[in-house]
Amino acid sequence: MDIKVMKFGGTSLKNEKTRAYVYRHIVKNLISHKVVVVVSAMGRYPDTYATDTLLSLGSPRLSKEEKARLVSMGEQLSALKVCSELLEMGIRACALSFFQAGIFTDDNYEYASVLKMDSRGIKKKLQHYDVVVVGGFVAVSTHGRITTLGRGGSDYSAALFADMLGLKEVEIYTDVDGVYDRDPRLDNMAVKYDVLTYDEMLNMKSRVLHDRCVNYAKKHKLIIHLRGSFSSSSGTRIQPRY
Questions:
Q1: Which pLDDT value is given to residue 38?
Q2: What is the pLDDT of residues 203-222, one digit of tens each?
Q3: How far is Cα 10 from Cα 117, in angstroms, rounded to an integer?
């Protein structure tokens, strides 16, 4: 069974129009793969389900554990929304809860360290479904409490899932079609990199990817293919050398 892990960020999932592009990428890959889709919370503040919007609903007096539970709802809603729309398209899809996903951490609610991973839950679902959708950024402690992997941690989640499943590559989709020498949204003379090493990526001024994701990929020699949700461009590959 060939598997691909595809991660989509909040701006890619913001509304029905942007999600249509996401589904095109997923459907294209279903020709030859089962797909694990890792999702962030939908949109950005002040969008209704964005992480910062959810945080604004809670009191500053909430404990760190309670805040982790509050923000986890964004990824949970996103996973269920994506799963629902895929089902309506006739695709065999399911959404995993964080307790089923197989990433287990310590009890640091804001920047948890991964202690162990268990791929059995995802692999079992992939035997019966073509797409498994799971929220990124959020995990579960070995004591059964909701934890988070740090802001932007969905990239890291995607790398963890790819490694957990024994893959050599993870695809991460954003609203920009790769890594540029400067922001292409502000400068139309920006130049896109086709390939970067892990260290080159870590030294970039623009934080396109979560550092934990890149460091984990470097340690495990996992290729990161950074692509644009709204483009068919080949994007940027981040790998050991070129």
A1: 99
A2: 987 778 989 999 999 999 99
A3: 25
Cβ burial, residue 68 (10 Å; 0-12/13-18/19+):
buried
Residue scoring higher pLDDT (204 or 78): 78
Token reading at 63: 């404990």
Q: Which residues are bridge partners to 93 per DSSP? A: 131
Looking at residue 31, what is its pLDDT? 94
The pTM for the full model equals: 0.96
Pair type for strands 114-117 and 103-105: antiparallel
> Concatenated DSSP letters for 25-85?
HHHHHTTT-EEEEEEPPSS-TTSTTSHHHHHHHS-TTS-HHHHHHHHHHHHHHHHHHHHHH
pLDDT for the residue numbered 36: 99
Question: pLDDT at position 75, please?
Answer: 98
- Extract the tokens encoding 132: 């498994």
Angle at 225 between CA 241 and CA 32, to 5 degrees: 120
User: Which domains are present in the chain?
Assistant: 3-239 (3.40.1160.10)
Write the CB contacts of 232 (distance below 8 Å, at least 6 apart in sequence).
none
On the 0-12 / 13-18 / 19+ scale of CB atoms within 10 A, 80 is: middle
For 172, counting Cβ atoms within 10 Å of its Cβ (0-12 exposed, 13-18 middle, 19+ buried), the class is buried
Indicate the pairing of strand 34-39 with strand 179-180: unpaired
